[in-house]
Amino acid sequence: MKRRLMDILACPICKSHPLELIVFTEKDEIDEGVLLCGRCGRWYPIIETIPRMLPDDLRDATEDRGFLEKWKPHLPEGVLKGGKPFSLE
Amino acid sequence: MREDSVRKAVRKSYGSIAKGKQSGCCSSSCCNTITPEEVSKKIGYSDEDVNSIPEGANLGLGCGNPVALASLKEGEVVLDLGSGAGFDSFLAARRVGPKGRVIGVDMTPEMLERARKNAKKGGFENVEFRLGEIENLPVADNSIDVVISNCVINLSPEKGRVFREAYRVLRPGGRIMVSDIVLLAPLPAFLKSTASLVACVGGAALKKEYLKAMEGAGFACIRELEESVYSIDSLIDLPEVKEAIGAGKVSIDQAKGYAKNVVSMKVMAIKQPSD
Lengths: 89, 275
Prior knowledge:
The structure holds two protein chains of two kinds. By secondary structure, chain A is α+β, with helices and mostly antiparallel strands. Chain A has one domain. Chain A is built from two helices and four strands, in the order ββββαα. Chain B is an alpha/beta fold. Chain B has helices spanning 3-18, 36-42, 47-51, 66-70, 87-96, 109-122, 159-169, 194-198, 207-217, 232-236, 239-246, 252-260; strands at 77-81, 101-106, 127-132, 144-150, 170-183, 220-229, 262-270. In chain B, strands 3-2-1-4-5-7-6 form a seven-stranded mixed beta sheet, sandwiched between helices. In chain B, β4 (144-150), α7 (159-169) and β5 (170-183) form a beta-alpha-beta unit. In chain B, α1 (3-18) runs parallel beside α6 and α7 (159-169) runs parallel beside α9 (207-217). The longest helix of chain B is centred in the N-terminal third of the chain and has 16 residues, at 3-18. The termini of chain B are far apart. The chains are: A alpha+beta, B alpha/beta. The A-B interface holds A 1-2, 5, 7-13, 15, 17-18, 44, 48-55, 57-58 and B 4, 7, 11, 77, 101, 103, 107, 109, 112-113, 116, 128-133, 135-141, 143-144, 168. β4 of chain A pairs parallel with β3 of chain B.
């Protein structure tokens, strides 16, 4: 994902814009990171450059929790403890 | 089928198509001997279009949206609903140039994986793909100049919602240009199975309901640009049609009659500037 696309990205559920971006790895574009919605508390992973912005029922809880585990040290506590739709609590 | 199972069936089937295990709508399944490139030329893309795109981006799945692509201007921001392996997104990217950009949304991870690889292969700097659902667009209000979609909305069990979302993200004065399968008359119940759904027939809405859904979302100046009949062979080749003919429930002539009511339509509309 390229940073300049942040001005178009919104939360698919509550439509809040802009979203907060945390970058974990970046080469010529953002490879892994997370997008946070300040309004509804949802988080969306960026995996292999693709932001995964699916509604809750199309998300995979196991995969999502795996992602949170993987990037635990880089994620805000709010996401780890109370992130929607999945957290590590 | 219920809405939820429709979505799951579509996601699963198009995931297999992306991996090359299955064919989809208007694709080579209909006409086993022709390639995706040939399908695309048949539905109105130029040789130049087809040859300019990285190999593997064109799965031959659309019903064709060359009119929409031709209308794009340099610098425009385009959203492609159901971008698949990226064929239309890449063509759009070429038209809008480096100052424009194209965002492709698709709910099938396997498709996006192909699209991402194709973007890299083709060196496209102005295309972005994201995993998302066209009923819940991950896109900000009033941020898009043109929404395009090629043979995808028929797959959605919530077409009204798709159009409301498209309307929301378009800037005032922006336009939607869609190519899709619609019905002129209702199809018999046996054509509502998963296979027909994936072939873009089972989920297709009546044309007047489709246009009404666009109007209901707020769109103005709804204009039909082109209409062509869906391939009769494609319809007769569907497993449930073959079965019905085999069992003597339906005659070949009856099946041909159904096909006449399945059309590929190109339609455009705008979001009023005063809105």
